[in-house]
Design brief:
The chain is mainly α and 248 residues long. The protein is 75% helix and 0% strand. Helix 2 crosses helix 4, helix 2 (30-56) crosses helix 8 (217-247) and helix 5 (115-135) packs across helix 8 (217-247).
Length: 248
């Protein structure tokens, strides 16, 4: 049985309803998923370059950030509920998320010089460290581990949703956005939860390849990884912004 993933785009029912089709040449492989992830990342960087450049050319990129975020969210829902659409929609998702991240990163960079490079390097470092830990079995995606990360991820989502709703009424969630040490500690915990989702994604993709998921699931696996990486990068930005603000 394929275990649960804390990443809401990757769950055990996804592969259950897609396994058992085609011959070996049309089945999901880890190498194929890596290739699709790389393609999606390149498209994301291309989209980010556009909105980043527009910001530093003096344009208001608020619409880029909002449009990219909303468009990416809508596509993520479609892809999640209709995995066969992944080969067609994941590249577009990558571009839209890139436009969103480029605008967001430029805004942070304008306020805190060098923050985006540090956030990107930290995100990549965490990704490689956890990939090594997973491949060397230093970290194992046991059922209890999966349940713990899944529960923590849902908890973070609920807190962010509650913060958003309260914000509509002018109420700020205590400590969540603070730049003091409590706020920094909260961000560190959220970064750790986001990072641990990578372990579940690795396990889920490996299980899908072993169980013979169809070829289009390579794009779906790449999509799941990108969702986690985008979340991790945004949380890194927020964490570093708090640290820089506290230092000033």
């Amino acid at each position: 049985m394929i275990g649960r993933s804390g990443n809401p785009t990757l769950n055990e029912n996804t592969f259950k309803r897609t396994t058992g089709y085609g011959n070996s040449a049309s089945l999901m492989t880890i190498e194929g998923t890596v290739n699709k992830t790389f393609i999606t990342l390149v498209l994301l960087l291309a989209g980010a370059f556009v909105s980043w450049s527009r910001y530093f050319d003096g344009y208001d990129v608020g619409a880029y950030a909002i449009g990219g975020a909303i468009g990416g969210f809508i596509l993520s829902l479609i892809i999640s509920f209709n995995p066969p659409s992944a080969p067609y929609l994941v590249p577009i998702y990558g571009i839209l998320e890139g436009v969103f991240l480029g605008a967001l990163s430029a805004i942070y960079e304008d306020r805190f010089d060098g923050i985006t490079l540090q956030a990107a390097l930290l995100t990549m470092g965490v990704f490689l460290a956890l990939l090594f830990a997973y491949k060397s079995r230093l970290i194992k995606a046991t059922e209890n581990f999966k349940l713990g990360v899944f529960s923590a991820t849902v908890g973070v989502m609920i807190v962010y949703l509650l913060s958003f709703v309260l914000g509509l009424f002018g109420v700020e969630m205590p400590y969540l956005h603070d730049t003091g040490w409590v706020g920094i500690l909260i961000s560190l915990v959220i970064v750790a939860i986001a990072a641990l989702n990578l372990v579940l994604d690795f396990d889920f993709i490996e299980s899908g390849a072993q169980q013979g998921a169809p070829k289009y699931m390579e794009w779906y696996g790449a999509f799941g990884l990108m969702v986690t990486l985008v979340w991790l990068y945004v949380e890194m930005l927020r964490l570093l912004a708090k640290v820089f603000s506290n230092r000033d």
